[in-house]
Design brief:
heterotetramer, A alpha/beta, B mainly alpha, C alpha/beta, D mainly alpha, A: alpha/beta, Rossmann fold, 6-stranded mixed sheet, C: Rossmann fold, 2 domains, 10 helices, 41% helix
Chain lengths: 391, 323, 251, 286
């Protein structure tokens, strides 16, 4: 018993030291970028991958000699904080990073946390960036918020067009996540389909953060037997849904979302998505843009595991931040950096993993998008050719 | 009265108060003040839960739900421009208190684990409703909550956006909460609570109506939780359904039991420890939950009645000085 | 008549614990209830104090029907009880235990507790004093600051009586108050029971120890498997062959 | 009509996993009066072990992995009893709950470090065999879940009711002192029970996992549901746990199908509350 007690005391002591000793010497030529996200707990699979994407870009930039702002060379460094996907902790993190590193920019990708962060970031003079999807983030007149993600509107319109032109669907059903992104998509998609006179037979819900057996909802949709089903979820969930749909005997082609990427295809199995509709993004170009191939191979080299798609946006985002700083000639003034970033995108081709083209004035990203369908495992455009990068 | 000013205990507490008042001026940077504010809000919350768990002996896992309901009621009233912060807070507190009584009446008939799991279900359902009733609650997150803002009282502009000011607000509320709970548990009502905790059959045999006092303590807990929720939402400006989740209730339960159920100081110690530990453990990165769980385990195994439970047991004099 | 028990009946599942039981207690009387184990003595207590609901008959206290009332209501009307297995507020001091017993004779509510009004403070003071008196009376003054769970078993049983008396009863139900006590401890309790009666409180006493029962009771009701065999002055009951047989049958 | 049949089948299969978990919880609660949340983590690790077994040994011998996983996790469960729960046996019940939470954090945190956060599939060969019973469609894997769970449940029931050890366990859970008086070693009994309970939880994880995905976060949901089940069934009642598990599965799928899937998870918890309001001690009290 005694020994256990001492061991415990030891651990605590050691950590206190770690913590106390943790505060860094603020090197004058280092620019600190904040990252606040879930690195432990249920949402960690998202946060960890997103952070790895950030680190990958930062290391590359530093190896290439850092960034040059106002004739002065700086190296970047990421300061991470684990908020366990709870806003209260996220705000604690932002304030901590502000105090310790005086960060001008914070990257946060979870909606709840980002909502809380964008309540105070202007007061702290910190620019918020990330792919958090909650519409409100950019609709509260926040001068320091840049969403590194498109609005759902473009995606849903394209998807609806695909469903009508390619599938000739007269009726459809939706199987949708209850998160803000899901709800946003569901509303917009339903509107777009209504305009095109396609009949909605039913909407089923799930929570992709924890559900993994969707057969109940699928059974229900099967009974409606629609011409197509819109599936709204990220890779893991949507992949399983496709698989389970086929297993339960739904054979019609499905309409996927941008959340359904290579990892999703892997899980679903190529044969199961033949003929399904999806939004075409840079990740579907063939040949695959070398930015993305490099990203994936470097990711595997560095962390010896496959990359999930969460880090890809952040990778390009870091370059946008770096170029933005260089353009604006400031490494500390969030407002200047924002202006710089708006001028800096799209970033140079070899780092375009997300192909963000520009920002709307309230800070929503505009990404290159088209619609197509899967032909023997590949996503091809409406005319059935492999999509090629636009010039 | 005269005796009070001669008692060392009184002056000790005055000293502690002075330290707490000076805190924001000694802490450098707003991160630590922020933590202090959060700890303050949680002290209110945990103290109120202690009333239910520590003194009445009813393991409630619905406290997070009341916290959330309080926060959402207060915020929605503001966001919809129905009321400003303070009246909204008042409404939220009363509403949640009444809700607590209404929920408590049927639930408290269940005992021990049945009550615990029953209340756990209440939390889960509350969080689900808050998430899915999007028209009312804004779904995954509700932002743009005005909070107390920057009112001018008697020509003096009080800026509640400033951390220091909010710190004092929370500090005052926390102190009054602790005083209130302390007085309650040392009154006839509090004795009835403890009678139920220790021997319900005997309590009934000496004329305590168990149902009445259980519901009383449950709804008082809910009421204070709502107060904490209101303060939280007013400070953060954005809230999400997770604050009502069962995870939150678990955290609060851990804070009460690790600190020492049924001791006033325990609620404070438990809260500070469980807010500071994860901050300290940030350095441990992915090992955080592992080490956190380990420490939790060690504490609870060696101090089954919680830290302050242990400390107060060392010597009656300590128990007399530390409530 | 203080308490009238009129053909009270109680079933547990199929079997009948108490059937058609009749007896009454007069003012300032000590009535003993004797009978072998499982003859329904404790069930009777639980029926009188409202822990169990009777399946037939009625119980009148000072002419008022109390059957079907909850225990905390009945104790307010002046019937207090102790338990066969010791029940105390273990973590509380002796003094606190008795003060808790005063619950149904005090009135302070939440507001009183919060604001410590003059009335509340006076009430607290008064209950503290009467609690001290009671401890004195039950020979427990020296353990006023000791947690109840640390007392000797004899002290604990007296503490139970003290708590019961704190509710200011006119009828006190004692469930084997001397069980597991040494001779002199028993004598002490017997003496106290006498004092309680002279204080104007009637006592209904379950007793295993025949000698004690004989010594202290004015009248005795003997029951076996829920039915009254006989009732009367101790020596009569002791002489009753049914009673003897019941007891021998048991041993 | 077809849908009802299919939904009942869905419910039956999820239900059988709940039943196993609940059975484990009920046994442990019965003997130690502790709400052992750690079973959620045991369930998850069971799934992970199965994942690695299939990856190394191959999907063909999937079923061989099951007993292996059960035994390993039974040992882990026994360890948690010996070095954690036993130390707080005399403390208030709530303490045991905190111990369980701590263990859950340790086990889940540990597996995050060991296995990583990402989700993986178990390539069970029975996944791809799709059977049609009239309108009802079910993969062989899911049928197996049902069969195995029922078998295990029956075995445990017989073990508890008929064998000497089972009787001793029941005696202990009824009254520790009495049991030790007649010479039963309470410690050994609780050791056995924790082992058994954990084994069952692990089996549930290993069986259910191939029908979706394996990740460190997968444990919390089922264990929470299992709690609802044992409360419905009456704490510590073996029969109640088994019946309750299947009942809950059914209710969930039917509720989601014919009321709304938005509140799919609310049904379980809502029903529990309603039951408690009318029967504060659960449906089948032992």
């Amino acid at each position: 018993m005694k020994r256990v007690r001492f061991a415990a005391m030891g651990i605590v002591g050691a950590l206190l030291l770690l913590y106390g000793g943790g505060s860094p010497a603020l090197a004058a030529d280092t620019v600190h970028i904040g990252f606040v996200g879930p690195l432990t707990g249920g949402a960690a699979f998202l946060g960890v991958d997103a952070l790895k994407g950030v680190k990958l870009a930062v290391d590359e930039i530093n190896e290439a000699g850092g960034i040059t702002v106002g004739g002065k060379k700086y190296t970047l460094s990421v300061e991470q904080y684990d908020d366990e996907a709870t806003p209260a902790k996220a705000v604690a993190g932002l304030r901590k990073l502000k105090d310790r590193f005086d960060i001008p920019v914070v990257i946060a990708d979870v909606s709840g946390s980002s909502m809380a962060l964008t309540e105070i970031n202007e007061r702290l003079g910190i620019l918020w960036c990330g792919f958090a999807r909650h519409p409100m983030i950019t609709q509260r007149g926040n001068k320091l918020a840049l969403r590194y993600e498109g609005t759902v509107k473009t995606d849903t319109d394209l998807a609806a067009m695909g469903a009508v032109e390619l599938l000739k669907a007269k009726t459809y059903a939706i199987l949708c996540d209850t998160g803000d992104w899901g709800r946003g998509l569901q509303e917009n998609f339903a509107k777009a389909m209504e305009e095109r006179g396609v009949k909605l037979l039913g909407t089923e819900w799930f929570d992709m953060r924890k559900d993994s057996d969707f057969r109940v909802q699928i059974t229900k949709i099967k009974a409606l037997n629609p011409d197509t089903v819109k599936i709204v979820a990220y890779d893991e969930a949507s992949g399983q849904i496709v698989k389970q749909c086929r297993e339960m005997g739904i054979t019609v082609p499905l309409v996927m979302t941008t959340g359904f990427q290579t990892r999703g295809v892997e899980i679903a199995g190529a044969e199961n998505i033949e003929g399904c509709i999806n939004i075409i993004g840079p990740a579907n170009f063939s040949p695959l843009p070398e930015a993305i191939t490099n990203y994936r191979s470097n990711f595997e080299k560095k962390y010896n595991q496959k990359s999930a798609s969460y880090g890809e946006n952040n990778y390009e985002l870091v370059y946008a931040i770096a170029r933005g700083m260089e353009k604006s000639g400031s490494v500390s003034d969030a407002h200047k950096i924002k202006e710089g970033m708006m001028a800096a995108v799209p970033v140079e081709k070899e780092h375009r993993t997300a192909w963000l083209q520009k920002w709307t004035e309230n800070g929503d990203g505009v990404l290159w998008r088209d619609v197509g369908f899967y032909k023997n495992g590949e996503l091809v455009d409406r005319s059935g050719n492999l999509p090629s990068p636009p010039e | 009265m005269a005796t009070r000013f001669t008692s060392g205990k009184f002056w000790a507490y005055m000293g502690l108060l002075a330290v707490l008042a000076a805190l924001p001026w000694t802490l450098k940077g707003n991160y630590y003040i922020y933590l202090a504010i959060m700890v303050g809000i949680y002290v209110i919350l945990v103290t109120s839960l202690n009333l239910v768990i520590g003194y009445t002996g009813q393991i409630s896992l619905a406290h997070g739900a009341f916290y959330g309901i309080g926060a959402y009621t207060c915020s929605i009233l503001q966001v919809r421009d129905v009321l400003t912060f303070w009246p909204a807070l008042l409404v939220a507190v009363i509403f949640t208190g009444v809700l607590g009584a209404l929920v408590g009446l049927p639930m408290l008939r269940a005992r021990g684990p049945y009550f615990a799991i029953g209340t756990m279900c209440l939390s889960i359902i509350t969080a689900l409703v808050l998430l899915n009733w999007q028209g009312l609650t804004g779904g995954t997150s509700l932002g743009g909550i005005p909070g107390p803002g920057q009112p001018t009282i008697a020509g003096v502009k009080i800026d509640f956006y400033s951390n220091k000011v909010y710190y004092y607000l929370v500090l005052i509320v926390a102190i009054f909460t602790i005083l209130a709970v302390h007085r309650i548990v040392h009154s006839r009502v509090g004795r009835a609570f403890m009678a139920i905790r220790e021997e319900e059959e005997l309590a009934e045999a000496i004329g305590v109506n168990p149902m009445r006092y259980k519901v009383l303590s449950f709804s008082m807990g809910a009421l204070i939780a709502a107060l904490a929720g209101g303060l939280y939402s007013g400070y953060m400006g954005a809230i999400d359904p997770e604050i009502a989740s069962v995870g939150m209730s678990f955290n609060l339960l851990v804070m009460v039991l690790v600190g020492g159920a049924g001791t006033i100081s325990g609620a404070v110690v438990g809260t500070i420890l469980l807010w500071m530990l994860p901050e300290v453990l940030q350095a441990a990165e992915e090992y955080k939950p592992l080490i956190f769980g380990l420490i939790l385990l060690v504490i609870i195994i060696f101090m089954p009645r919680g830290i302050m439970g242990k400390v107060r047991a060392i010597h009656p004099r300590i128990a007399e000085w530390i409530p | 008549m203080l308490l009238e028990v009129k053909d009270v009946t109680k079933f547990f599942g199929g079997l009948c614990a108490i059937s058609q039981l009749n007896f009454e207690i007069r003012e300032k009387e000590i009535l003993g209830v004797i009978g072998p184990n499982g003859s329904g003595k404790t069930t009777l207590f639980n029926l009188i104090t409202g822990v169990h609901k009777s399946d037939g008959g009625q119980i009148l206290f000072r002419g008022e029907r109390i059957t079907g009332r909850r225990p905390h209501e009945i104790v307010r009307r002046g019937i207090a009880r102790t338990f066969q297995v010791t029940k105390l507020f273990g973590r509380q001091t002796g003094l606190n235990n008795v003060i808790m017993g005063l619950h149904c004779r005090t009135h302070a509510g939440v507001w009183g507790g919060l604001f410590r009004s003059r009335r509340t403070r006076a009430e607290e003071k008064a209950s503290r004093e009467s609690a001290l008196e009671l401890l004195e009376f039950m020979h427990l003054s020296d353990v006023r600051d000791t947690p109840a769970e640390l007392l000797s078993s004899a002290q604990q049983r007296r503490m139970m009586m003290a708590i019961a008396l704190a509710t200011r009863p006119t009828l006190l139900l004692l469930d084997e108050p001397t069980s597991g006590m040494s001779a002199e401890e028993t004598a002490e309790v017997v003496d106290l029971v006498g004092k309680i009666r002279t204080g104007g409180v009637s006592v209904l006493l379950i007793e295993h120890n025949m000698k004690v029962a004989m010594g202290v009771c004015d009248r005795i009701v003997a029951i076996e498997s829920g039915e009254k065999i006989t009732e009367g002055p101790p020596e009569e009951v002791a002489a009753n062959e049914k009673v003897i047989e019941a007891y021998l049958g048991k041993d | 009509m077809e849908q009802i049949a299919q939904q009942l089948m869905n419910g039956l299969i999820t239900g059988s996993a709940y039943a196993l978990m609940a059975l484990g919880l009920a046994l442990i609660y019965g003997i130690m009066h502790v709400a052992n949340f750690a079973l959620g983590a045991i369930y998850m690790i069971g799934a992970f072990l199965m994942y690695y077994f299939v990856r190394w040994v191959g999907g063909g011998s999937y079923l061989l992995g099951l007993p292996l996983v059960m035994v390993v996790m039974a040992c882990v469960g026994a360890l948690t009893e010996r070095y954690a729960f036993r130390l707080v046996r005399s403390a208030p019940h709530a303490t045991g709950f905190i111990v369980a939470l701590g263990l859950y954090m340790i086990l889940e945190g540990g597996s995050c470090v060991l296995f990583g956060h990402d989700w993986r599939e178990i390539a069970s060969p029975y996944n791809d065999v799709i059977l049609n019973f009239g309108p009802v469609i079910v993969t062989l894997q899911r049928l197996l879940i049902f069969v195995v769970c029922v078998l295990l449940a029956v075995c445990v029931y017989v073990f508890i009711m008929k064998t000497l050890t089972g009787k001793m366990i029941r005696a202990t859970s009824q009254n520790h002192d009495a049991a030790s008086l007649v010479g039963i070693s309470v410690s050994r009994m609780s050791l056995y029970t924790f082992g058994l309970g954990s084994g069952l939880a692990a089996a549930a994880g290993a069986m259910i996992a191939p029908t979706f995905m394996v990740g460190p976060a997968m444990g919390l949901e089922p264990v929470t549901k299992a709690f609802v089940v044992i409360i419905l069934g009456g704490m510590g009642s073996v029969r109640g746990a088994i019946i309750g598990g299947f009942a809950l599965g059914m209710v969930e799928s039917l509720g989601a199908a014919f009321v709304t899937s938005m509140y799919k998870d609310a049904f379980a918890f809502g029903i529990l509350i309603i039951v408690l309001v009318f029967k504060p001690t659960g449906l089948f009290r032992r």
